[in-house]
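Table S2 (continued). Query chain:
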Amino acid sequence: MKPRQFMFGLVLSAVMGGSMAIGGYKLLEDDEPVVQVQQEQPSRNFRYSSLMRDSEVKVPEGLNFVTAAEAVTPAVVHVMTEYGTELAQNNSKRQDIDPFFRDFFGDDFEGYHRRQGPSVGSGSGVIIASNGYIITNNHVIDKADKIKVVLDDKRELSATLIGADPSTDLALLKVNADKLPTVRYGNSDNVRVGEWVLAVGNPLNLNSTVTAGIISAKGRNVGIVQNVDANGNNLGVESFIQTDAAVNPGNSGGALVNLNGDLIGINTAIATQTGSFAGYSFAVPSSIVSKVIDDLLKFGEVQRAFLGISMREVDAKLAADKKINTLNGIYINDFSANSAAEEAGLEKGDVITQINGVNVNTSAAVQEQVARYRPGDKVKVTYLRDNDTKNATVTLRNRMGDTNVVKRELAKAVNYGGAKFEPLSKAEMTKLGLEGGAKISNVKSSEFKQTGMVDGFIITRIDKSKVEKPQDVERLLKSAEDESGVLVEGTYPDGRRAFYPIGRR
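Corresponding output:
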C-alpha cells in the first residue's frame, strides 16, 4: 500500500477558550505550493525501558540539559487572558454554511451562538528584563480584555500590553515587579541544523515544562502568520526555526534555548492533524525577536523595513525560461510604489543572491534579513543581471515608501463629509467577529444621506481596501475623489450586512 498523503496542518499552540485561527499566506510571493508530507508506518524498533541495562543509558560527552533547564525555567511564565461575554454572530446566513456544519448544527442554526461566561485563553511567556518585561505571542493576547501572568513562584500579577506585532506574532507585556529571573538573548544566526535545543513552556499553569530535541531546519516559511494591511498587502514575516522538541498546546510564547540557556527563539506553532504535537514545532528566531522587542520599547510600534519588491524563488523552470545560470537567489517580478530597491537601481528580472553578504535563496531568507533593519538603514544587495554579478546599496523604506519613524496611530473619531466616524469597542468587535471598522453617525445631516446608510452602520471595507479605524475611511474616500465612485461594505449592529455605492463627490 502506498503511504497515505496528508495535509501539513499548522496550529498556533495557545489554548484558547473560543476558536481562533490565523490564515496562511506568503509575503509577496507569487507561487504558493501546497506543502505535503508522507505518513509512514511507525517503526517497531523499540524496547521497553524496564528491560534496558543501566549501561545502555549514557549521556554523550558535553551533552547536558540540566544546566540550561535550571537556568531558564524560573523565567518562563503562564499567561492567562480573558474576553468579555457576548452574544456573537458569525455574519453568515444558514445557506452560506458548509453542508457538513449545517447538518451538525441542525435546522435551527441561523449563525448565532452564545458564549457561556467570559472566554478565557492561555499561553506562555518569557521574562527578558528583571523589572517585569515579558515576551509572548501576539495570538496569545490578541483582543484580550484582561491579561494576567503567573510567575514560577506562584505569584499572579496583572499585565499591561506594551505593544504587539502581528507581522511576527510577537507581543511585549509588563508586570509591576522587580528582581525577576530572566533569560538572556542568544544569537539564532549561530545555531546549526542538528544542534540540541530545549523548548520551555508553562502550559495550563502546571509550572514550567522542558522538552528536548534538535533543530530540524532554519528559515521555514509555513504560511501561518497573517497580517493584511488596509490595502490588502500581506505583511507577515516568517523565517521559523523548526525543531522536533515536543511543543504542545499552551506553550505558545515559550522559550526555545540552546544548551547554554540562551534564548534562540519564541515557540509559536506546531505541525499537527489533531491539535497535539505531531513531530515538528516552529519558533521565531531571536534575531527577529530582539529587534521587534527593541522597537516596541523605543517606539511602541515596530519600524518595519521593506525592499519594495514582488519576488519569487528561482527554480529549474524559471532558470530555463529566463536563461538564468543559477538555481540560487530571488527573482524580482515587480516593484511596489516608491520601492527602495528600484530607487537603488535594481530592475525587473534581476536575481538577488545576497543581502549584506548573507545568501538568500528563499523568500523567508529575504524576510528574515530585511526584518532586522529599520527604515533608513542601508544594506548591500548583491544581484545578477544577465548573469553578471553586481552590487547596490539600498536605503530601506517603510510601508509608506519613506524613511520616517512610524508612530502608533490610535483609533479616534473622525468627522468627514458632515458625518462622524467612530472606532469600535472591544465588545462590538467581539460580538460581530470583526477586527476593526468605523461606525457612522449623523448620516441625515451629511453628504452620505443619499446612500441609504443609517446611523450605526459599521464600515469594514471600501472597494478592495480594509477599514480598521475611522482614519482609514477619510484616507480611502479622499484618495477616491477622482474616481467615478466606490463601493462601501459593512454591517449593522444586529449583524445585517449591507453594501452602499457612493458616487463621485
